[in-house]
Structure formats: structure tokens, C-alpha cells
Amino acid sequence: MSMPQTTNAWADGRSFIGQIYLRQGQRWSPIHLQATRHDFSFGVDVRSDTGWLQTGGTDPAEAFLFRFHSKGPERLHFTLSLARDSTRQLDIDSNGRLGLYPRASTQQYWKVQPLEWQKDRVMCLLRDQQGHQVKALPGNGADVAGLTVQTGELCEYLIVRAL
Q1: What's this model's pTM, rounded to 2 decimal places?
Q2: Which of 66, 105, 131, 148 is the most exposed place for a label (fewest CB within 10 A)?
């Protein structure tokens, strides 16, 4: 399988800011920081920033800084960080969950495998540096899912470039 050739391959060799969406059925759900958790001891929802990424709720998609790293067969490699705080880099925790964590000493790059290019968006698969596909980990509630490179549902992603 070769990378689809198109004149719209705007991310090929370039850095950019964009948002990521996860395909859930017929809709694209925004990926954002997990900002709320339920505290069972008090029976209330508490806003806290765990760094984990998820879909669901009413939060909009986070803006990510995609820094071009390199190009491989059928894939473009980027380091990803939070656009509003580039010290928080996309990485994997010890449980395989994706999140935005303080920059580690080694930079993890991510593989974007384009499936379909459009004007300012690309439908794709996402993989970690070792080639493990990013999957959805069903959570609590409708359309809530975390992101993992371990056991989960295989998904397509949509990256929308900010103009």
C-alpha cells in the first residue's frame, strides 16, 4: 500500500497547528484533555487535569502543535504538543494511555498514516513510534473514550489544520 498521492498533502514535510477528532460511528468526536472525574466519596464531579486525552462531553478539541520530524514509508512523523503549552508533549503513560505530559528527556514521535487528504484535513490512522496503532478505550458515558496503544477499538482519526 502506498501513501495516497495528492496535491493536497499539505502536512508533508511541514509543521502546523491542528485539532484531532476520533471517528465514532458516523460522527467525529473532538479529542481533548480529560478535565472532569467523579469523586465517589463526595458524589460530585471534580475538574482536574490528569493529562489524559479523551472524547466525550462538551469540551472542544484541543489545538496541537504538529512538529514535522521525518517521513517513513506511507507515514509522516511528528512530535505533538499542546499548542497553548508546548512543554506538554503527547506521550504514553505506564498503562498505555495517551496524554499530554511534561516534556520527557527523549522525544516520542507519532506516525500519521494518511488515508484521504482534503483541503485542510486528513483522515488517517495514528501510530506510536514503535508502530502500535492508537485505539479507543471505551469510558463511562456516551461517546466517552480514552486513547491507548494497548487493547482497544481500532479507529480512524481526522486531523483538521488551523488556518
Answers
A1: 0.86
A2: 105
